[in-house]
Design brief:
The complex is a heterodimer of chains A (99) and B (554). Chain A contains three helices and no strands. With 99 residues, chain A is an all-alpha fold. Chain A has one domain. The longest helix of chain A is centred in the last third of the chain and has 25 residues. The N and C termini of chain A lie far apart (62 Å). Chain B is 66% helix and 0% strand. Chain B has one domain: Up-down Bundle (Cytochrome C Oxidase, Chain A). The longest helix of chain B has 35 residues. Chain B has 554 residues and is an all-alpha fold. The chains are: A mainly alpha (99), B mainly alpha (554). At the A-B interface, helix 3 of A face helix 8, helix 9 and helix 11 of B.
Chain lengths: 99, 554
């Protein structure tokens, strides 16, 4: 598989249009109240946008296995950042006698 | 000095990358990785000198207990600018950008890096970043410490935080581009026959370093942008008064900045592996495990950042986790030290200048690494946190380790880079001065820290003066030690004896080509048929077998 396959322009415009639509959706949702789900919904939309950009705009979909592994490792490292940081936030307790 | 290869030096200077073209344009628009390495060398030396001058002023202030030379605000700016210039503009790029740029393609038998234009761009980005930070210095300096802790940096500091931070943000892209370039080069441009486990350990170390550069640097860039957003627009991210969390900054900052220590030390370890094998005349002990330990350090280095935050308000349970994980990094680091020591065992050791730096590295890095284990222990860290014990610890790793490796590498590769030899006796004197000066500067700081002297103050109780005077005296020896190589290396460019192609009788493709190398490195693409450290078959260079010459085609 070549790394230099050029996609037809309509694919790029299609992805671009979808991204714009999702941005509009994010803006609309910001004005609605879904209670505890507010953040979750915003993050789900953001994740879909990330996937679109990575697969099509960054050409990972047509790339070799090695490039895909490197792209995936970026997300794995992001999970390390989030996971270990949350290991702090989820286990913070007040010290006895300081309240 | 005994130089086996000198006899073969040519009298008329053949065409090489230095004399191929002379115009200013040919340097500033060059795509030759070797010339770009030298551009980096010039930039780095400038920033190292600047950072060193700040260190001189710091040590002068600490000669007496009273804050009599500088006001506290000025002192804050001095140690901040020292840290910023040394960490971001010298230590991080030093070995990868100078020796890595120059030798990585040579070592793998390639004609250049995979993306030569990107390589030149990375130097320009580095210089622009450095100039931004230089502007911050000239405009009045920064006083936050090189760590830019919030909310001080994002809300309260009155100094030029944004300009300095922007400089670091910009230079980060240089680091990312270098990392991408090295990874692509190592994957795609190795000479025929150069399998992964025939690669020199220098190349393995740079591969591991590049992974950290690519995966870690974006996080510091984003963190700096967040500080700027809070400072400029008042958005509450790190400031607790606005609903932010200052500890979040420390998580993000150290997620990059702890692995950044390994960006500094891993390439140094690569250099040490090359020198130890060459000057012991032995195959390196435990090649595979040294290569894998580089990757292990790169990965484990990302799991330990919370040990900088034991007293910050981080959860105690997270503290326990980070403490345990920090202990793990000791394993691959110790593997390297033991393997170098085993390489020395029963080797035919020669104490040339690069080897002196290498032996210094092994001892000093071991002290730096072991005191790191003290600091990874939760209870000990509470006692010595933010004291001179920390300052001594990281200087043992960064100066005793990284700078010794950089200087060792520079002396080892200088004859290949310029085709000239430096005065060996003077170089040995400088190496000993640096070793003695370094220990006299920083060992007293372990004691000062353990006795409770906090870092980052310009005045201190009188009982600490003797140790501080010793430290300042050591710094003056260290300073002279650093000045010497700057003098004799420049002298050697014009007056040094011709080095020949392989003055150390070293193995490796980089030593099989001409000194200084031709613009395209090799006349013919070399074909590799054996491992990188075949010292068993390569005694002195004159005794190299005809088969080897034929195989290498250079």
């Amino acid at each position: 598989m070549s790394d230099h396959d050029v996609l037809p322009l309509r694919v790029y415009f299609g992805v671009f249009g979808t991204l714009l639509a999702l941005t509009g959706l994010t803006t609309w949702i910001a004005y609605q109240d879904f209670g505890n789900l507010n953040t979750t919904i915003a993050l789900v939309i953001a994740s879909i946008k990330v996937v679109l950009v990575v697969l099509w705009f960054m050409h990972v979909k047509q790339s070799s296995g090695l490039v895909r592994i490197f792209a995936l490792s970026g997300f794995f490292w992001l999970m390390i950042l989030f996971g270990y940081t949350l290991s702090d936030y989820f286990t913070r307790t007040s010290v006895r006698g300081w309240e | 000095m005994s130089v086996p290869g000198a006899a073969t030096a040519r009298t008329a200077e053949p065409s090489n990358y230095l004399n191929a073209e002379y115009s200013i344009k040919s340097w500033f628009l060059t795509l030759d990785h070797k010339r770009i390495g030298l551009l980096y060398l010039a930039g780095l030396t400038f920033f190292f000198t600047l950072g060193g001058l700040f260190a001189v002023l710091i040590r002068l202030e600490l000669l007496t207990p009273e804050g009599d030379l500088f006001q506290s605000e000025t002192y804050n700016k001095l140690f901040t600018m020292h840290g910023i210039f040394m960490v971001f503009f010298f230590l991080l790029p030093s070995i990868p950008a100078v020796l890595g740029n120059f030798f990585l393609p040579l070592m793998i038998g390639a004609r250049d890096l995979a993306f030569p234009k990107l390589n030149l761009l990375s130097w320009y980005i580095y210089m622009v970043g450095g100039l931004f930070t230089l502007y911050a210095m000239v405009a009045g300096g920064v006083d936050t410490g090189w760590t830019f802790y919030t909310p001080y940096s994002s809300v309260y500091a009155n100094s030029h935080v944004i300009a300095a931070a922007l400089g670091i943000f910009i230079s980060g892209f240089s680091s990312i581009l270098t990392g991408v370039n090295f990874i692509a080069t190592i994957h795609t441009m190795r000479a025929p026959g150069l399998t992964w486990f025939r690669m020199p350990l220098f190349v393995w170390a740079h591969y591991a370093t590049s992974l950290i550069m690519v995966l870690g640097t974006p996080v510091i860039a984003i963190t700096i942008v967040l500080v700027a957003i809070e400072r400029l627009f008042g958005v509450g991210i790190f400031d607790p008064a606005k609903g932010g969390d200052p500890i979040l900054f420390q998580h993000l900052f150290w997620f990059y900045s702890h692995p950044a220590v390994y960006i500094m030390i891993l390439p140094g370890m690569g250099v040490i592996s090359e020198i130890v094998a060459c000057f012991s005349r032995k195959r390196i002990f435990g090649y595979h495990i040294i290569a894998m330990s580089s990757l292990a350090i790169a990965v484990l280095g990302f799991l330990v950042w919370g040990h900088h935050m034991f007293v910050s308000g981080q959860s105690i349970y997270a503290g326990i986790l980070f403490s345990l994980l920090s202990m793990l990094v000791a394993i691959p680091s110790a593997i390297k030290v033991f393997n170098w020591t085993a390489t020395l065992y029963r080797g035919s050791i020669r104490f040339d200048t690069p080897m002196l730096y290498t032996l210094g590295f092994i001892g000093l890095f071991t002290i730096g690494g072991l005191t790191g284990i003290f600091l990874a222990s939760l209870a000990v860290d509470v006692h010595v946190h933010d004291t001179y014990f920390i300052v001594a610890h990281f200087h043992y790793v960064m100066v005793g380790g990284m700078v010794m490796a950089y200087l060792g590498g520079l002396h080892f590769y200088w004859p290949k880079m310029f085709g000239r030899l430096y005065p060996e006796t003077l170089a040995k004197i400088a190496a000993v001065m640096i070793f003695v000066g370094f220990n006299l500067t920083f060992f007293p700081q372990f004691l000062l820290g353990y006795l409770g002297m906090p870092r980052r103050y310009h005045a201190y109780p009188e009982e600490f003066q003797v140790l501080n005077v010793l430290s300042t005296a050591g710094a003056s020896i260290l300073g002279l030690g650093f000045a010497l190589p700057m003098g004799y290396l420049i002298w050697s460019l014009f007056r040094g004896k011709p080095a020949g192609n392989n003055p150390w009788g070293a193995s490796g493709l980089e030593w099989q080509t001409q000194s200084p190398p031709i613009s395209h490195n090799f006349d013919e693409v070399p074909i590799v048929t054996e491992e990188a450290y075949a010292y068993d078959t390569l005694r002195p260079p004159a005794a190299a077998s005809p088969e080897q010459e034929e195989v290498l085609h250079v």
